[in-house]
Structures are given as structure tokens and as C-alpha cells.
Design goal:
This protein is mainly alpha-helical and about 700 residues long. It has 35 helices and eight strands. Helix 28 packs parallel to helix 30.
């Protein structure tokens, strides 16, 4: 969830939301905002966000079910509030969307049923009943249409039509009821027939009423037969030549409310593109649009549809209804204030247009224009800004899917100048795709991890190699709850310096990296660990990742926060050795051993009798591979502690014994006692409740003694 987007929209009224530029926000981000207003039961702002989504040029149909959003807006916001003109407006928009994109017959039928319902509730009985009749004529055995009539008719004083419709439905359900609607239909029927009186029908055209009753008696379609796609007079339209029959023209215009769903279907049907049928259909829709606000959601498309080649402007990734001219796509792509992924999708559609031009060897001037436009995008001043790095990477990736090799110098320049998100693509891959001279791939190490981090100061994303990541589980739990945390919970084994702005450890781990680090252990244990509970199963630790719940100054504290506090204490008390060995302990915890070594050395310089620092320095040198130095330090630690001191001081005895263990580990080629205790992955033992409590008690005591 994008908390910044949420925070921004929380301050806006419904009218403010509708004034927002639709392409400024990706539909996925707006869905998070929609969820917030649903939770707040704020229907007015919820409706505004739905409209903002459905007017956006974003078309993320692989991830978002737009049909569901259309239904939510139409049913919850407008039909329920009896705003019928609005409902019709959005129903026609939804139908156009469905016909332009992958059409699901069931979705289209649901929309048409809803359209019939709206006209009936509006009091337009002739139109509503005609639409229901046409649905039944196309598929007489469709129980869902009967079910909708049973729901709607009693509410609009059509009980006397609901009863025969239900009787027919129950008869049909005896032979075929895959959705198991018969019980519900029977309940509807029982309620209606138990009433003593049935109100008279409102004023309905007798011919329309007769046609409805006639249609109820139609036999269902044979099994595996698809419903009729079109009915008269639309079927007559499909057989017209270059000149449209005047009578047919006037008939369709006079009853456009009934026929407009099928007109939209024909207009977007690829089988008719470039034909007289398509031109007649578009002409009819344009004439209706001139006087009927109900079609205003189709304005951009119908304005473009004056050209017989308008289908060429349809885009796969950009826009919900209609298409975009090349200048319109370029305007979207060039605007840095809009959502990066919407702009990238528009660039993909523009480059698809470029490929078609190349394949057809037509319009060379347009091809040159698109190439020059992409060249400008790659080299203009904005291309050097941090917020453009993701877009430049996505644009280059889209270009690499084409044959636009003329842009290679500008692409290489972007890589050479390190001004694109490196997680999207790389130059060796592009050379390979374009069959160019192979470039040596980057060296891939296996003794650690590659992590993707975004600088919180300059917003640039880069990949880094580290050999160990320490996860502060307390901070991670807070971060997952969107609480403000001073540092990222994933702490790298070296200071992360942004190569662009120089910020140190001011990064945010990207979601994929975070998930990968979390899944180092068994997934089922992750959430229990976050909540401080015992793991459900034995996990296999990741050798490159460790999890801690650090404390400092008597409270849970992020290691880097604690480190900064001790640094300040050291500055305020320059002769005090303690803050330095405490810093060393923290640095060891997060695997920054070279820095820890310097901290321990400084502690010894300030206090040559600080035996704990000698031992810690010995283990650090040991784990850094400086075995001779480690041996000297272990021996010196033991030598500085007299037998008398060991007998009288339990802590000194522990340090001396640990130093002896360190020497033994050196002789046997093993890691230091510190590493064996805290760093070597161990299978988590299955403990009973008593053993777990005893273990926690020992750990608390140990942490207190070892002065971490």
C-alpha cells in the first residue's frame, strides 16, 4: 500500500478527487485509496475514486477486474441512490469497455440486464421491457435473465409480468438448472402468488407487451448452442451496402436506447473494421451522441472515429474506451507528473505502432518522428532526474522489444552515465536481443546476496552485493504496520553509500528483496516470529541472513539508532572507553566486523585494562581471518587475568575461559566462540514450554552479563 497516496487522498473532498488528473495515479494505487474509503464507509469519496479509476488512461486489466469496478459504481453508487441518468452513463461506458477489450458474454449480459433494470426503475417501461425481451430472444433459456426480472418487476409495479416469467423459469429449471436457481425462483414465486391482489400494469405499449409474452414461450436453445449475437434490426444493418437504408436509419435512431448496446458491439467488432457496416454504425453512434449525454463517456473515441482508420488508434495497454492518436500518446509519455507505469504503457503502445509501420514499410516520416521522440526522452534534461530513472529503464526495455537500433547510442549513454533503474534491464541483455557484439555479463558472486535498495534521500534505486543481512524483527513488525521507522529493518553488513547522493544507510529495501530475505527461513515461521511467538515448525536458517531483536538503553532499539547514540556519548565523553566497546558489540551484531575492530581498538587505547575489549577484538580478528593477531590477543587476554582475579570475579573467569575456547577453536580451524554462538546457522530445537521459559531466562541473564 502506498501510504503517501493514502495520506494525500484523505485530505481531499469528493469534488476535489474528481478534479485530480486521472493519469497522475496508477489504478492499483487508487484501489488502495478505494479500500480506505470503503473501510470509513465514506460512500461519496468512494464513488469519486471509482470514477477517477474508470476515467484513467491506465488499463491494468491483467491485475484489475474493471468489470467488477464498473458494477460496483453502477449498483452501489447510482442504482441504489436512484441516480438513473448516471447509472445509464456508466453502463454504456462499461459496455464499450467490454466490447473493446476481451469480451465475456456473461459480463455483457449482466450489464444489459442492469441497463434494463435502470430504465424500468426510471419509469421507462417500454425500453426496459424491450431490452429484457431481446435478451430472452437471444437466449430464451437463460435463467439469470428470468431471475433479474423476478427481482426487479415487483419493485416497479410489474408483478403481473413477474408471475408468468417465474412460471416459465421454473419450468425451464426442471430440465436445466446448473446455477441452482430454482429454489430462489420458487421463493420469489411463492411471495408473489400469496398476495391477494396484483396491481394493474402501468402504461406499456401493447405491441411491446405482446412481444414480451410471446418471447416467454420460446423454447430454450439446443445444448452447446451460443446465444444470438445480434437481432433485427441490427442484423439488417449488417447487410447494408455503401448506402444505409433511410427507414432502417430512422428506426435505429428512434429506439437507440434499446439498440445502443448492439451498436457498440458492432463498432468494436474486428470483423467489420474498414467496412461500410462499421462506418454506418459509427455514424449512428455519433448522431446519437450529438443530442444524448448518456454517450458522453465515449466522446474521445467517437471524436476519433470520424476517420475510417480509427481502429489503428486502439491501444492494448492505454485507455479503457477508444484509442489515442500518436500526439496524445506522446503527450502522456512526456509528462513527468503522471504515473510512471501509465507512461511506460503508453510508450509500449507507441512503439508497437512503430513496429507496425516498420513491418508495413509505410509512413517513414511517422517512424522517424517516433524515433526522434524516443531519442529526446532518453537525453532531455528530465532524463537526468532521479524520479525519471525507473521510466528511462522501462522505456529502454520497451525499445529493446522493437528493432529501433538507431537508439542504441542514447541507450548506452544512459547506462554509461548510471541514470536508470538497474533492476529492469541491462546492456548485455540488450546487445544479445539485438544480435550485437556480446558484452561480458556482470560477475555474479555466490558468497552472499544481491539486494535492491532505494535511497530515501534521492529516491534512486540500485543493486548492492552484501555477504550478510541482519533483520531487526521489532523494526520489521513496525514497518509492516506502516509505522514510522528511523532505519530500514534490513541492515547490511557494510554501510550502504548511495553512489549518486552519498547518503549513508538511508535506504529502503524493495518489496521483492524483503520477501526474498523473509523466505530464507520456512515461510510458515515468518509471521509467528514477527509477533514474537515460537515458530510452528523447525526452520532451516539462511547462512546469509540472521534475525535479531536488539535492545539498548533498556529498550528495543534499531542497531543503527543505538550506534548513533553511543557515538554521541563518545563525543561528549572522549576519554570513556565504554561507548566504544558497546559500539563494537553493535557492529558485530550487524556483521560490520572491520568497523567493530576499530571500535574495540579505540576502547583499548582509552583503557588498556578493558579485558572485555581484548577478548572481543580477538574474536573479531579471528573471524576476519587474521589468525596470528587473534592468537596474540587471546593469549594476552588470558595473561592479563590473574588466577586470583578469576576466583573472585565470575565475569573475568568467563572472559578467560572464552579466550581459551578461542585458542582451541583456532587450533582446530573453527570460527571464534562468538561466531559459533551467534553466527553459525543452527536448527531450531523443539522445546517444551518449560524449556522455552528456561531458555529465555538464560538469554536475559547472558545479555545482561555480556554487556551487549
Amino acid at each position: 500500500m502506498n501510504s503517501q497516496t493514502i495520506d494525500y487522498f484523505e485530505t481531499l473532498s469528493a469534488s476535489d478527487i474528481l478534479q485530480e488528473t486521472p493519469a497522475k495515479w496508477g489504478d492499483s494505487d487508487l484501489l488502495d485509496v478505494l479500500g480506505l474509503f470503503e473501510e470509513l464507509n465514506d460512500s461519496e469519496r468512494e464513488t469519486a475514486v471509482l470514477e477517477l479509476i474508470l476515467t484513467s488512461p491506465d488499463n491494468n486489466d491483467e491485475m484489475i477486474d474493471y468489470a467488477e469496478l464498473y458494477f460496483e459504481l453502477i449498483q452501489n453508487s447510482y442504482i441504489s441512490q436512484k441516480k438513473f441518468d448516471k447509472a445509464i452513463y456508466w453502463l454504456l461506458a462499461a459496455l464499450a469497455y467490454e466490447f473493446q477489450h476481451d469480451t465475456y458474454t456473461h459480463t455483457v449480459q449482466n450489464l444489459q440486464r442492469s441497463l434494463a433494470e435502470v430504465y424500468l426503475r426510471q419509469g421507462n417501461y417500454d425500453v426496459g421491457l424491450q431490452i429484457f425481451t431481446r435478451l430472452l430472444q437471444a437466449d430464451p433459456g437463460d435463467l439469470w435473465t428470468h431471475n433479474m426480472m423476478a427481482l426487479v418487476f415487483p419493485d416497479v409495479n410489474l408483478q403481473s409480468l413477474a408471475i408468468p416469467a417465474l412460471e416459465r423459469a421454473l419450468e425451464l429449471a426442471k430440465d436445466n438448472d446448473p446455477e441452482q436457481l430454482s429454489n430462489q425462483l420458487q421463493d420469489f414465486y411463492n411471495v408473489l402468488t400469496e398476495k391477494e391482489e396484483t396491481p394493474p400494469l402501468p402504461d406499456i405499449n401493447p405491441d411491446i407487451l405482446a412481444e414480451f409474452h410471446k418471447t416467454l414461450a420460446l423454447a430454450p436453445l439446443p445444448e452447446d448452442t451460443q446465444p444470438e449475437k445480434h437481432l433485427p434490426p441490427i442484423t439488417d444493418l449488417l447487410n447494408q451496402g455503401e448506402t444505409l437504408d433511410n427507414t432502417l436509419h430512422e428506426t435505429i435512431l428512434a429506439q437507440w436506447k434499446v439498440f445502443v448496446p448492439e451498436l457498440l458491439q458492432v463498432a468494436f467488432d474486428e470483423d467489420y473494421w474498414g467496412t461500410a457496416v462499421n462506418r454506418h454504425t459509427i455514424s449512428l453512434l455519433r448522431q446519437i451522441h450529438k443530442t444524448e449525454p448518456a454517450l458522453d463517456s465515449l466522446t474521445q473515441w467517437l471524436d476519433q472515429a470520424t476517420d475510417k482508420n480509427w481502429p489503428q488508434l486502439l491501444c492494448q495497454h492505454t485507455g479503457k474506451i477508444g484509442g489515442f492518436t500518436t500526439p496524445e500518446l506522446k503527450s502522456l509519455i512526456a509528462n513527468t507528473e503522471l504515473d510512471t507505469f501509465i507512461r511506460s504503457a503508453a510508450s509500449e503502445d507507441l512503439l508497437t505502432r512503430l513496429e507496425k509501420i516498420s513491418e508495413q514499410r509505410s509512413e517513414p516520416e511517422q517512424r522517424s518522428d517516433i524515433i526522434e521522440f524516443c531519442r529526446t526522452l532518453l537525453t532531455r534534461k528530465d532524463a537526468y532526474e532521479a524520479q525519471e530513472e525507473l521510466f528511462i529503464a522501462l522505456l529502454i526495455d520497451n525499445i529493446s522489444d522493437t528493432n529501433a537500433k538507431e537508439l542504441y547510442p542514447e541507450i548506452k549513454q544512459a547506462f554509461d552515465e548510471d541514470r536508470l533503474d538497474p533492476t529492469i534491464t541491462d546492456l548485455p541483455y540488450i546487445n544479445e536481443k539485438w544480435d550485437m557484439t556480446p558484452l561480458p555479463p556482470a560477475e555474479i558472486r555466490e558468497d552472499g546476496l544481491y539486494v535492491t535498495l532505494a535511497c530515501k534521500k534521492c529516491q534512486r534505486t540500485r543493486r548492492y552485493f552484501v555477504q550478510h543481512v541482519t533483520i531487526d524483527m521489532t523494526t520489521l513488525a513496525a514497518d509492516l504496520k506502516d509505522q514510522n521507522v528511523p532505519y530500514d529493518p534490513h541492515i547490511m553488513d557494510r554501510p550502504i553509500v548511495c553512489p549518486k547522493c552519498g547518503a549513508i544507510d538511508q535506504y529502503k529495501t524493495d518489496p521483492i528483496t524483503s520477501m526474498r530475505l523473509a523466505m530464507g527461513s520456512n515461510p510458515e515461521n515468518i509471521f509467528s516470529k514477527l509477533m514474537g511467538e515460537e515458530p510452528a515448525t523447525t526452520s532451516t536458517p539462511d547462512p546469509f541472513v540472521s534475525q535479531v531483536r536488539p535492545q539498548a538503553f533498556g529498550q528495543n532499539m534499531h542497531p543503527l539508532v543505538a550506534l548513533n547514540k553511543y557515538k554521541q556519548i563518545a563525543l561528549n565523553h572522549p576519554k570513556n572507553a565504554e561507548p566504544h566497546w558497546r559500539m563494537g558489540n553493535i557492529l558485530r551484531m550487524i556483521w560490520r566486523d572491520e568497523q567493530a575492530r576499530e571500535a574495540y581498538k579505540r576502547s583499548i587505547e582509552l583503557d588498556p585494562k578493558e579485558l572485555y575489549s581484548y577478548y572481543c577484538l580477538a574474536t573479531t580478528e579471528h573471524d576476519l581471518g587474521n589468525f596470528d593477531e587473534a592468537q596474540i590477543l587471546y593469549q594476552k587476554t588470558m595473561k592479563l587475568i590473574s588466577p586470583m582475579e578469576m576466583m573472585s570475579d565470575e565475569e573475568l573467569m568467563s572472559i578467560s575461559m572464552s579466550a581459551a575456547e578461542g585458542l582451541k577453536a583456532l587450533e582446530n580451524g573453527l570460527p571464534s566462540p562468538y561466531a559459533q554462538e551467534y553466527r553459525i546457522p543452527k536448527e531450531e530445537p523443539k522445546l517444551n514450554r518449560k524449556e522455552r521459559r528456561a531458555q529465555k531466562k538464560r538469554m536475559r541473564k547472558m545479555n545482561k552479563k555480556k554487556r551487549h
